[in-house]
Specification:
Length: 732
């Protein structure tokens, strides 16, 4: 993490008792008193204490807040870089201040979620203070990404994919997942804002600064009530800072209930309101509330005087559905908002999938448009009939002229309907690949974290030959027996288990994440399925992701599901999937390939690095080729489509779907030509794609049978979705 990413120090403040580490009869002050007593006993010997008595060596300073400072440090034995939060000496003997510091540490430590920064340990320091270590995140805050987006838009420049609205929405949904998890544990954050949301170098998302978090429904009347009344320094222009000892939270991102000081009544609805303010800022590139000072800002929050819900810069668009979702979550009364943050996130995902949302159900006209979108041929028939009736009523003299005009209009309408259908399907494909990339990044981030900090595991290791995992069962989709509990661990030639014992043993718990990624690709959670259901889903029915794997630079591969194979001289580092992303940054999709075990697959990989930037290896997923064809390429409401394609920006065919049936196991349709990537056979279409056009259609009259080619751009991959069908009669 860069130093500027921690300019707002993680300052604890609030009213709440501890979580599960404190018994029902204890409160935070009682725990703080106990630790303060221990500190007092130790303090007499601190002057003679060896400065190396602590586990951490301070290497720099990130920032300082009201009660503590955040430093960079390195563990003396593990050599791991961490963020090191230390309470300032003058606050140690203050039980309320120490209580807030301890509560922040314990709440953050107990919220174990991939999108919440992990806490490592707590200690008394050699200089007479207390501190705790947490993961050091290298990346940018959401606030910085929004500012970069504003800068590029104001200069009229195009946005890179990492600053696109769809990518920021995926980050936002990851934040929603983390907050929903915290709410399920009975904890509300109360200080959500773009500056507290970190995006790592590999697109991993972390919710930071739980300093004023508390448990829902538990309220300690003394301290927080005292601080929730009265305002000082009202002319302070820095409205984005969390104010210690005054209002609990950041004024610009407070809910009306939080701004009114109703701290004991707050629940998950207040976090939902703050999330909606962040969503407003993502969509418009401007804050929802603007004010001249704090008093004016609080008045606007309490009366819900939000800025005009329009993009800050011309050319940007905000979908009607996203506006409706944001407005619902920004309702003045909590009961008018979504029932939970999960419900809000689900509505955003409905929008991404092209379905009607709950925030603003389709009315008559919108229902009609959506019906037309889903039943284009029937709508076209009705429209053409109406046009024909109108023409017949005109009669005699203008009959021929009007008939020609009607055919032209009907043809243009049909072309536009086709383009709309293709564009809508392209959005669904885009959302799907974005989800798969998110799962891949999650796998890579988990592997990196295990390599950096996990203790050695004593779990068994099962090499591919002979593969002796105890839970193997027949899996038709894989053409043999597989294991759902144990991955295959393979070694490159001249490498043995002893050569990399330490790293091997730290990575063994990764088997749970390898399985989780496969099940989540099918919108399933491991905890929701019985072992028999998991076996049937992965081994027989099939999930979008067929294989997950992690390959280390030293020459070892973890492959899931576990399966036996005997490939002499197999070295993952020489395979195309490894070279695809090795020593690079980002997610890379490779060419389709045919695997003898499981048929046709589409690979994606991303490189892994440690905190110092050292290359560790690659993490990868393999999508079932037939799943991509059946669920993504086929345009079901357009039966006249004969072929569907995914083309790269050079016009090369990455995936081709033909109308005839495919082999249900391998997904192969015509493997005689192999999985080469020929350039599409019509130059005007390739030329249109090479110009980075968003979409359109081209009529190819040079073919033996004239054909219509309709295409739309996939913003996530930079590829194009193309469908081919016979040209309409009037086009020839």
């Amino acid at each position: 993490m860069d130093e500027k990413d921690y300019q707002e120090a993680l300052v604890a403040q609030g009213d709440d008792p501890e979580l599960t580490q404190v018994s029902a009869a204890e409160t935070v002050p009682s725990v703080a008193d106990a630790i303060l007593s221990e500190y007092t006993q130790l303090q007499s010997g601190l002057d003679q204490q060896d400065p190396t008595i602590t586990d951490y060596e301070i290497t720099g300073e990130i920032g300082q807040g009201a009660m503590g400072s955040v430093l960079t440090a390195r563990h003396r034995n593990l050599k791991r870089q961490v963020a090191y939060k230390k309470i300032l000496p003058e606050f140690i003997e203050s039980t309320p201040s120490l209580s807030r510091f301890l509560r922040e540490m314990q709440i953050t430590a107990q919220l174990e979620h991939p999108n919440i920064v992990p806490v490592y340990e707590f200690e008394f320091t050699a200089d007479g203070s207390m501190a705790y270590a947490m993961k050091l995140i290298h990346g940018k805050t959401l606030k910085e990404l929004i500012l970069e987006r504003r800068t590029l838009l104001s200069a009229g420049q195009s946005l890179p994919s990492e600053l696109s609205q769809s990518r920021l929405l995926e980050h936002f949904l990851a934040v929603c997942d983390a907050i929903h998890y915290a709410h399920s544990r009975g904890v509300i954050h109360r200080d959500l804002k773009p500056a507290n949301l970190m995006i790592g170098e590999h697109a991993e998302v972390y919710v930071m600064d739980w300093g004023i978090a508390r448990q829902i429904g538990r309220f300690q009347t003394g301290e927080e009530q005292e601080h929730s009344t009265g305002l000082t320094e009202l002319n302070d222009p820095v409205l984005d800072e969390t104010r210690a000892g005054q209002i609990l939270g950041t004024p610009r991102y407070m809910s009306p209930q939080q701004a009114a000081g109703k701290n004991k009544d707050l629940d998950g609805q207040t976090d939902q309101f703050s999330l909606a303010l962040i969503l407003f800022e993502i969509l418009t590139c401007k804050p929802a509330f603007k004010a001249k000072d704090t008093v004016d800002l609080l008045k606007r929050i309490l009366t819900l005087k939000i800025e005009v819900f329009e993009p800050l810069y011309p050319g940007e668009k905000i979908a009607r559905e996203l506006k409706a979702i944001t407005r619902k979550a920004l309702a003045l009364q909590p009961e008018e908002r979504y029932s939970s943050v999960l419900a809000m996130a689900q509505d955003i995902r409905r929008y991404q999938q092209g379905n009607a949302i709950l925030a603003e159900p389709d009315k008559g006209f919108q229902k009609g448009l959506r019906w037309i979108s889903q039943h284009r041929l029937r709508a076209l028939t009705i429209g053409a009939s109406m046009i024909l009736l109108t023409l017949l009523s005109v009669g005699g003299l203008f009959y021929t002229q009007q008939q020609t005009l009607a055919r032209t209009q009907a043809l243009e309408l049909q072309h536009n309907h086709l383009l709309g259908s293709v564009s809508q399907q392209a959005q669904k494909i885009d959302a799907h690949f974005l989800k798969m990339e998110g799962l891949l990044r999650y796998l890579a981030a988990t592997a990196q974290q295990l390599i950096a900090q996990a203790p050695p595991s004593t779990e068994p290791i099962y090499p591919p030959h002979p593969f002796r995992a105890p839970d193997q069962y027949p899996a038709p989709l894989f053409g043999g027996k597989i294991s759902l509990d144990w991955p295959t661990v393979g070694f490159s030639p001249n490498k043995t288990m002893a050569d990399m014992q330490g790293k091997l043993e730290r990575l063994l718990p990764l088997r749970q994440t390898l399985k989780e990624v496969i099940l989540r690709s099918a919108n399933q959670e491991p905890s929701s399925l019985s072992p028999a259901e998991s076996q049937d889903l992965i081994g027989t029915s099939g999930t979008p992701i067929m294989w997950t794997h992690v390959s280390l630079a030293e020459g070892v591969i973890y492959m899931y599901p576990g399966i036996g194979f005997n490939t002499p001289g197999y070295d993952a580092r020489t395979r195309p999937f490894y070279r695809l992303s090795a020593h690079k940054h980002g997610v890379f999709w490779g060419n389709p390939y045919f695997d003898p075990l499981s048929g046709a697959l589409l690979p994606a990989t991303t490189a892994m690095y440690d905190n110092s930037g050292l290359f560790l290896g690659v993490a990868g997923i393999d999508l079932r080729f037939q799943y991509v064809i059946d669920q993504l390429l086929n345009l079901r409401d357009q039966p006249q489509v004969t072929h569907s394609y995914l083309l790269n920006p050079k016009g090369e065919i990455m995936i081709e779907s033909q109308a005839q049936a495919a082999d249900p196991i391998t997904g192969a349709q015509d493997l005689t030509r192999g999985f080469d990537t020929p350039v599409f056979d019509y130059a005007p279409l390739v030329d249109a794609i090479s110009k980075n056009e968003q979409g359109g259609y081209v009529l190819d009259q040079e073919a033996a049978q004239p054909r219509l080619l309709v295409y739309a751009r996939l913003n996530t991959l930079g590829w194009y979705y193309l469908v081919e069908m016979p040209a309409l009669a009037e086009s020839i």
